[in-house]
Structure prediction request, 667 residues.
Amino acid sequence: MSLKSSKNKKKKQMTKKKQAALVKTSAKSEVKPLKEAQNPAETSAPIAAQAPAKIQASDGEVFKGRLERLHDELRWLYMELYGNSSMFAELCDTMGDFFRERKQELKELDSQRETRPNWYKENDMLGMMFYIDNFAGDLSGVEERLSYIEQCNVNYIHLMPFLETPKGRSDGGYAVSDFRKVQENLGSMEDLERLTAASHKKGINVCMDFVMNHTSEDHEWAKKARKGDGEYMSRYFFFDSYDVPAQYESTVPQVFPTTAPGNFTWLEDAGHYVMTSFYPYQWDLNYRNPRVFNEMMYNFLYLANRGMDVIRIDAVPYIWKELGTQCRNLPQVHTILRMMRIIGEIVCPGVLLLGEVVMEPEKVLPYFGTVEKPECHMLYNVTTMATTWHTVATRDVRLLKRQLDIVNALPKEYVFLNYLRCHDDIGWGLDYGTLMSQGIGERSHKQYLNDYFQGYTGESNSRGELYNADPVTGDARFCGTTASMCGIEKAGFEQDAEGMEKAIRLDVMLHAYMFMQSGIPVLYSGDEIGQVNDYSYKEDPVKAPDSRYIHRGAMHWELAENNSDPDTVEGKLFQSLSRLEKLRKEEKAFVSYANAWTVETWDPAILCIGRYYEGEKLLGLFNFSEYDKTAWINETDGEYIDLLSGQKMQAAGVNIPAYGFYYLKKA
Ligand code: GLC
Prediction:
């Protein structure tokens, strides 16, 4: 027997021994680290086992090194929350299994990224999000469309939820019934791995959702819990009377006050209430139970190992519940997130965590953790997004300038995802304290914004619909595509050429402004060709009550074919965005960690953003009004070049056409 194969044999034996121990420590509950978990003998990582012994040995050292570096903190946090050392031991063992299962290509990517920790903060990052079926039918369809994605200058795709979910009770895929199975109509796990591998070959990163706050009521745990199995009931929040739910209801706000009121659902067959913060078919998981935490971490690692670069943690502020609180942003959420970050850094350090925290800024920032003990790598710049639309509706940049000043003052390690809109509604979470000092009240202003974007006020060209209008609080959110909110839908319908020109200008200017922010810009697929609202959701009884579907329409490929024709809406938008995207990739001052600031323009409708990195300085000027305006800036440090026309000019008293913009670079 050669030295190599005897080493391999030893390794296999060790793995088997370890797995026997693993089965022992978790005798009561299932541990399904790998796909073939039913047969522990088969779980010894096939890929690692086939790899040369030398790589294996150094691989082992890599894992050991990472574990040694982070073990103490992980253990400390775990014991603080759960005080269960055998479950902790199981977690560490299973992390080892996932590490061994991880493909060599992914491990190499991990190592590269460990040596280049700023890799996702560069100016070449541009994202696009889409539902797989709407974009390309299924996972193989997406693979075929990778060249279109490249044509869009996009190198980061967010595949909206695609895991198994019950038809008609899916919340756009956010009710997962099996974390290890792809929806049949979209393909299989093998297709997913093929897609991530093909994307990586083209330098495209892939993101997916990890819905860890809840499972679908069709998840196997939920089914067992429903039948009264205590082991599984303890993974959710079950109550046999309304006493405790009533106490929760007195402090916990509602996520979907109109489409799914209340935070609990009565299960007639089970004779119990179950906590359901979102839809009644989305059962909140109980993270007080370490089995829930461990199993969900195994699901996270399983998905990461399919080749994901970014894991979007859905609804993360909600994952810990405590009676007498709002059940949002509790300290234990941060303990869990920090543990998740550490687990990722040990097993798959190339994978980024993107937190979905749709909250006011002071609640969002703690999700980055501290610079020494980070939690999420990236967060959504949600307040800036909402404030952007406030600015569109008011032609007054003051609040936006203030908001950007807050963001620009944050540590450069923090990376935001910038966007104009996503698959969800726009909630009017603005800084009402500041607005109040300008004489603007919260309730009346929300009413104004909703009226404006529905197109009810004189100067608005927007189209869209309200979302979860709450008759009690008078609150409502808004849904619409970027193009529809900019007036492209209205101008198209009215065949108003001048209106269309104006709408396209606004749409392009908003993208130019978004690209100027620090972080990663993310487009919603279809926005690059100005796709408008899709009202067909109203014909589907399942979707009809949820107006978010208005901006989740299918991609119009027949229109995308116009994207190089400058006489079409699609061509105008696509080509303009393309130029900006290329400029962004060329100019170093767009890196996420550059200095960024705002400049007073002495015109309420004009925003000026400055960026500086290693001797290169840029100024972005954005006119949020439908009138030509002058930015009364006066930068006395010499000549500037207009990056779009290439002409030299002074950055002083700059005239900016209606809904126009400039990217000026210091010569
Ligand atoms: C997130 C998703 C949203 C979903 C909710 C519940 O907020 O973005 O679409 O409804 O989580 O999972």
